[in-house]
Amino acid sequence: MNKDIAISVKGVSKTFKIPHEKVSSIRGAVTGIFRDKSYEEFKALDDVSFEVKKGEFFGIIGRNGSGKSTLLKVLAGIYQADKGRVKVNGMISPFLELGIGFNPELSGRDNVYLNATVLGMTQKQIDEKFDAIVAFSELERFIDQKLKNYSSGMQVRLAFSVSIHANRDILLMDEVLAVGDSNFQSKCLTEFAKYRDMGRTVIIVTHDITVVQRYCDRAMLLRNGKIVKIGKAEEVGNAYVYENMSDEEKRMVNEEKQKIADAEKDLKNLKGKELIKEQKRIAEEKRKLEEERKNKVAEITKVVFLDKDGKEKNVFQTGDDIVARISY
Fold first, then answer.
1. How many independent structural domains does the chain possess?
2. pTM, two decimal places
3. In which domain, by residue range, is 74 found?
């Protein structure tokens, strides 16, 4: 593998078997031994291939169920791919599901040592970085409380703090910005930038298109386990927004078609005076619409939003400069 490549993925596929019957009792489990089991196959990843360069901030986006989290677990070695290969050039620090590497019955202090050990840190390394880990998480007051008493946001802060201080070559982050306040999210992004500046690699799964377009060098859009687009973060982010918008438009068009079909069906059922009355009503509505169109002072035909550099964008962050270009 090229020394400038941090992660190389070639033809990776992953399929899960989903049982049709769910066992809800001991009796069902026992009797089920003697019955043929049927499964439905769900292809979470389908022939996925891409490379991430060293020092790159790489975003993975897509709807729920598109395969983002499964892919991250394959990269981390938690899942084995059914087909294809994954090559990793460096040590990985994963932040995947909340709770992995933690014990809710232990204190925050003990969980720092537990999670850091899972990530490959030695006792000496943990001792040296313990104060920094706790300070970054801002949980000094709660560090000796049991983890089960922490909120989900507090757990995320502690887990992320351990991950970032493990000083691995590659950070794998799954929706770390989805939980926590804006100040902590800002701290996370600052740490990501530091990692990148040090020549390390960050791969992040997120639904936040603003983060992808502002911080990522490149990004990848997944749909149903397949790569839809991979390239510049700005372009991939726009593709994701457009994909969602086009689906909404399809829904609206289908609703309009259904309304027309229902109206035509109703007309066929009308006879005599009722039919004439309904035809007059429709004609009157058309006349009013035409009159409204003639009386318009102006009609807006297009609206485009631009950033401070004059580039067209659909997503902006609080505080950004926005230029609205309106055609009429």
1. 1
2. 0.67
3. 5-241
